[in-house]
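ok so I'm stuck.
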Amino acid sequence: MSISSKLPNVGTTIFTTMSKLASDCGAINLSQGFPGFDCDPVLVELVTKHMKAGLNQYAPMSGVPILREQIAVKTKLVHSVDLNSETEVTVVSGATEAIYAAVTAVVKQGDEVILFDPAYDCYAPAIELNGGKPVYVPLETPDFSVNWDKVKAAISEKTRLIMVNTPHNPSGYVWTSEDINTLVEFVENKDILIVSDEVYEHITFDGRKHLSLLTHLVLRERTFVCGSFGKTFHVTGWKIGYCLAPPKLTEEFRKIHQFLTFSSATPLQYALADYLSDPSHYLTLPDFYQKKRDLFCEGLKNTRFEFSPAQGSFFQMVSYANLSEESDYELAVRLTKEIGVASIPISVFFSNKKDYKILRFCFAKKDSDLIAALDKLQRFEL
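replied:
not stuck anymore, here's the structure
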């Protein structure tokens, strides 16, 4: 039987590949972006409580009301934006579903979608599966900021959507107010929508503030904002995320969502609603992760890698361009096998797989694992 693949160029992701290699080699896994520590035991107790209370059947398609309300409360507290929890907040099975459903809701055959390159690997497949064409705009190295002249040149009559990611994965770049205002200039009075991946919204450093696209009125009326409780509360395996969008966009979003997963795990939603009632659970995250970033960066100073501390996310990029011509993939594999530290080669994030000799390390791990990994990296000779 012959099958014509809809994604002929897609294979096993680098995250799966490197995590398996790390497991096979007994390496410290600083590759895949998941916390290397458990969530707050209170969350586990809350899930158990709601399971025992019999809340184990289908949740409403849009999410349990109390969780949607708590998301709206959080949005008001953090961003000073008022949301209608009934018509503008949808709970989904992870941010990846949110991104896919948002793209599917608005992208049609022949539409062009602007992606900032390098980009997280789920964006382009979602666009292509819906008949759209990714249009890549390269970010500026070494800080991976946006070159707005290149964005302007990329916009055409066919541009339907722009994909935004702040804080950015893999670089950690955090959008500025200038970025927000320039984007407004480019989309105002045009039929261009936006999907904003803001899963690291609570993980910014050195006093930087995450500026959600919701905070500007022009952007709010045309943007799907995708968030993740997995990233925020160290429960990536729960796969609970959400999408914030104005009523008309939410209506179209839910049409897709109801035929993807329909609803998400009920007791987990009630537990997260309870947990969100204490804002300290997310307002303290910047300090929590900055300590880990600083620990990791301080140790990197004793290696020969070059780097600038990440502005946000829980990833740190390092350059070895001054040390070797070895490809980033080859070096990532060699580090895993030879010294037992796994990372991600960032060439995989680029549309053309360009190799800038940069590796990405995840520092959302136990301090003991970070210290052990740094000891190995400090003794490694290229």
